[in-house]
Amino acid sequence: MLNAQNIEVSLGKTRVLQGIDLAAPPGKLVTVIGPNGSGKTTLMRALSGDISYSGRAELNGIDIARTRPWELAAMRGVLPQSSSLSFPFTVREIVQLGTREGVADTGRANVAEALERVDLSGFEGRMYQELSGGEQQRVQLARVLCQVWEPVLDGKARYLFLDEPVSSLDIRHQLQIMNVARDFALQGGGVLAILHDLNLTAMYADRVVLLKDGRVHAEGAPGAVLTDDNLRAVYECDLSVSRVPADGSVFVLPHGASV
Amino acid sequence: MAMSFTEAPAAARTYHRHDGDRSALARAVLAALVAVLVMTFFFSLASGASDTSAWQVFRETVGLGGGALDLTDRVIVFEIRLPRAVLGVLIGAALAVSGATMQGVFRNPLADPGLVGVSAGAGLGAVSFIVLQAGVLAPVASLFGIYGIPFAAFSGGLVSTLMLYRISTRHGRTSVATMLLAGIALGALAGAFTGVLVFWADDTQLRDLTFWGLGSLAGATWTKSLMAAPLILPVLIAMPFMARSLNALALGEASARHLGIDVQRFKNLAVISVAAATGASVAVSGGIGFVGIVVPHLLRLAIGPDHRFLLPASALLGAVLLLFADAIARQIVAPAELPIGIITAAAGAPFFLWILLRKRGLLDL
User: Which domains does chain A have, with CATH numbers?
Assistant: First the structure.
């Protein structure tokens, strides 16, 4: 269980996050959405233990601020928004960092299978720096999957923290990666993902946290959060939310929206 | 590593279990380097003005000599050449490993203690000690004995590494241009202070300074090895424990932390290691440049950047290269000898320019 209460973060003199409450239960895919600068990445950095915050954040009952890096690493993997590599590693060597560095017990983590899940089978021998941006992003996800290979370990859920996991992917791979995240949740793990795509949020999220100016504007099931009023208030443009006839889930068409 | 085969169509590409796995190659290279180091070591014991064969020396060393070497040769080999070869191995390994470690920490293949002012800082430490040991540093001198100079060099190296890191790294990102420029400035500053101290030095101290500053393994004694070993050996022993962190750090500091590395603590350890290895080398052999940049770079081309293999391979190749350079330094103007720093600079500087040409993009940060 990931539980955060009253999280506040100041960077310099600016207060970036104020009074954030967030719960990401095991088995659920929780997405954080909001406009640029609303504090999504800062929230994820706080919950990853990268920056100091006030308030209380717990992962499986352990205080995130007071836990050593290797203990956190055994419980959650973090996919960064972008990453730069300083030396020419092969794809296999990058993914193996997830199985070997830091975490002792990665179970049956398997490079070939991880690459297959992100649709990069056979890429083991390629140089990471020669791949396209989208391929690099998927290699990084494969690495993170290796780090938390078993979604549940010793009866405790492990977590995937994904910062814009599909930002540079084509539509097919967007769906594929979101399926990987959903499968992780279906097997009992927890997923916290920052997304920009409101439709992917509507399709995949079990719960949605909508941020505006460092505060939670709305929180709940996608159908309850993705409403005309909420989106207008947060994104400051007229978006109309409709429902898919087949299953009643919502979708957002930006056509005709005025800004 | 050129991939010379032609690209097969995607459908026909077969899956190989070991694709992208360079660890077998790296192990083979490590084994080969051990063999080459052993051969170079005995070759360096045998080469010089007094003629002995490497084979004779080897037999003598393992106790099968049966008097093949006469007394003069024995003294030359075991009292002059052996300490020199041992010191060469220590210094070569230390220089190459501190280069590789620094490049890993700064996440940048151009970082090298010699280029960015760490050696100059260590040099300032050593010179301060030589000049001031009879004066203000007398209590330190009596406390540390023969370890005074290495310790002073270590302190100087540590201060300049920390300053360099503070200046060139912001939010976990090192700007290459800032690092190199700050290194030039720090080196110049250390050089200026060193100049002042040399100006103050009396005649005996000047003689010490001149011998020390040649950048040479000449005058190697068992005492010098004893001075350097306590700082260098712990760094070599720590290598396997640093490899994991350096690998993770290649992904960036945040990702390394997410993988479970205590980044700040590791960086402290790495900076101390670099200062210790560089300081010890500078203390006993003056400034020997470019080993720390050439060796890791060549090895990365051959076996990839996995530090589990890169660090030990750097130690081995650094030792081989330094013994080799020392052999050249002794032969080329025999019976006199060149400072070894001239050989490594003559070979290393063009190599460094070549890296720059290939990676010009690195500087556009």
Answer: 2-253 (3.40.50.300)
